[in-house]
Each structure stands twice: as C-alpha cells, then as structure tokens.
Amino acid sequence: MPLALLALAVVAFGLGTTEFATMGLLPQIADGVGVSVPDAGNLVSAYALGVVVGAPLLTGIGARVPHKRLLLLLSGLFVVGNVASALAPGFGLLFGARFLTGLPHGALFGVGAVVASRLVAPERAARAVSRMFLGLTVANIVGVPAGTALGQQLGWRSAYLAIAVIGLVALAALALFVPHQPRGRQSGIRHELRAMGNRQVAIGLAVAVVGFGGFFAVYSYLVPILTEVTGLSDSSTTLVLALYGVGMTLGTLVAGPLTDRALRPTLYAGLALLAAALVTFSFTVHSTVPALVTITFIGALGSFITTPVQMLLMAKAKDAPTMAAASNHSAFNLANAGGAWLGGLALSAGWGWTSPALVGAALALAGLGLALTGGLLNRDGRRSEVITSSGAGAATEAGPVPAAHRTGDSAS
C-alpha cells in the first residue's frame, strides 16, 4: 500500500470513529449537557445532516482547488469540529458542533476516492479506493470501541479530543505523503454539476440510497434484536458489533479486486447476496452461532457494495467525478436514515423483532432492480472512461480491463 493510501485510510478511520462513537456515549453526553438520551440522539442526526449538506456544498466550493490542498482544508475543518464538540458548554452548541464536524465527511471521502484512484495503475483503481475505505471499517473494530471506552472512563469530551488528535495525524500524513494533483482545465462547479445531471449518476445514487438502506434497516436495531431474540447479554453486544466490523473489513478487501475486474456484476451480486443474507438472518437470529455467522456475512456484504457503487458513479461522471463520489456519502447517510425509519415502522406495526431484516431484504432487492435498470438503459454499445489519471479509467463493467483501460458499457 503506498503511503499516500495509508494517509487516506487514516482520514477514513477518523471519520468512521467520530461518526459512530457518539452512539456509544449517548448516556454520558445526555448527563453532561442536561438532556434526555432520546434528545442526545439528535446529535447523531446532526452529524448525518452535516454530511448530506456538506458533501455537495463543500465539493462545489472547492471545485477549482487542487485535490491535496482541498484534502488538507477539509481535514482541518474536521479537527475544528471535533475540538468544538469537546468544548461545547451546552446542547445547542454541541448540536451545531456535530453538524460542523459532519460537513467535510462526504467531501473528504469523495475527494479521497478520486485521489486514491489516481495513485495507482488504472486497472487497480477500485482496489485503491477500497484500501481507503478500509479505514472506515477498521474504525468499527478499533476506533469506535476505543473511543467509547475512553469516553466512559475519562468523560465524553475526551473521546472527541482523541478523535481530533487522529485528525491532526491524518492532516500531517496527507501533507507528507499525498502528491500534488492539479485540477484539469475544465474543472469548476458548473463542470461538476453538469456531470451530476447524467442519468446513470442519478440511478447510481438511487441504488446507494435504496440498496444500502437494507443494510441499515438491520444495523440500526441490531443490539435490541440480539438481546430480545437471540438472548445475548448487553455486555456481549460490543463484541458482536466488532464482529460486524470484521465482516465489513473482509467485504471491502474482496470488493476491490472484483470491482476492478467486473464492476456491474459485482454490484448485482452484492445486492442479491445481501438480500439473501438478510432473509436468512430472520431465521438464524434465534440461535447464537448461526446468528453470529449471518451477522458477519451481512457486514461483509454491506461494505462489499460500497466500492462498486463508488466506482460506477466516478465512471459515469467521467472527467468530473469528485462531486459524484462525494454525493455518494450523502446518499449513504440518507440510506441510514431511511433504512432505520422503515425498520422502525415495521417494529411499531407489531411485526416482531425479525421484521427489520425482511424490510432490509426488500430494500436490497429494490436496489438490485434499480441497478439492473441502470445496466439495461446503458446498453447502447458505447464505452465510457473512468478518469483516474492522465490516461483513462479503471474498471470494466462486464469483464477484465481491456488494453485501453476503459469501462465496458456493453454488458450489465
């Protein structure tokens, strides 16, 4: 792994840790700022709202800024947001600080994905992007449990300060190891927005919102499902969440090479297998070992579809991939909110604790339908480039990368 990719992975590690650590510290935060736990849960929504707003906004503002400089500026904003979170005296300012912290999230992932794809040979672009995403999955195994433990022992403010330190380390690594990547002559907000108008980009974002919503329909309620149905103790759920993170890491590792070889088939397979795993979970959840095995597969398949969706958006946005790549993370946060909402509706309707898994399977199948529709609409015999370097693109949608390194649109 080039050191520049490692630097980008550290950025992703910090983003993943700050995004999910709040969930594990809600009781401490609620006590610290004098609100109820449900009210403190709005801090999670504040961060997600920041991601949704910030991804297109900051990417557009920085459309003419060289990628390395933009990464440094966004990482600096990430550090400021976490320091502000640690120092916020009351709930209102803490809410604003979490919104501020979420603003650079999507833009950092979007710009980072474009930079990562340009650090390697075109036929290895998806592998490079997946290596950056490894930082996010490792955060679920190490960063979130460590941040939660630190916050419980030394106070919740210490967790945000520690995450700010991670941001400073990432900032230094970016400055040292990421090479300068100049913007093209056509760069600019209008150029990026014009690329976002591509029908295939719109379908790709819809796949992310709907298909990945199936993952979050279960993930959002995993702890109560395990305690109420499987019979695990509260103390065991942290280990299970780490196991979920292990599955996500394995899925990310596998997705990169497969996406480089066959982009659309990898996406189709991931969504179909995710639906099957979620249906299976509704049966295996009643027994500990089968439930844990299925959970690992769900975690793996959830992260497995991230890389092909990211690369598809970058391909279809052609020579203006940055905003499409960033908006993908806005889509994932909408999937988080939508999946949790639909899973909650099923529970409120009295359908039982296994119902979120079936809702998730339906969403994954709907996402597969959208992906297949995109593939069918794309069958016009033309080929499009994923702009990853001064040459052409990365992954073929149908098979091995041809000599010209272009994405094949002729098959779905």
UniProtKB/TrEMBL annotation:
Entry annotated with the keyword Calcium: no
GO cellular component entries: plasma membrane
Main location: membrane
Membrane topology label: Multi-pass membrane protein
GO molecular function, one term: transmembrane transporter activity
Residue stretches spanning the membrane: 44-63, 70-97, 103-121, 133-152, 158-180, 201-223, 235-255, 267-285, 291-313, 334-351, 357-377
Compartments where located: Cell membrane
Biased composition (Low complexity): 389-399
Domain Major facilitator superfamily (MFS) profile, first and last residues per copy: 2-379
Location of the region described as Disordered in the Swiss-Prot/TrEMBL record: 389-412
Pfam family, one: MFS_1
Keywords: Cell membrane, Membrane, Transmembrane, Transmembrane helix
Name under which the protein is recorded: Transmembrane efflux protein
Source organism phylogeny: Bacteria, Bacillati, Actinomycetota, Actinomycetes, Kitasatosporales
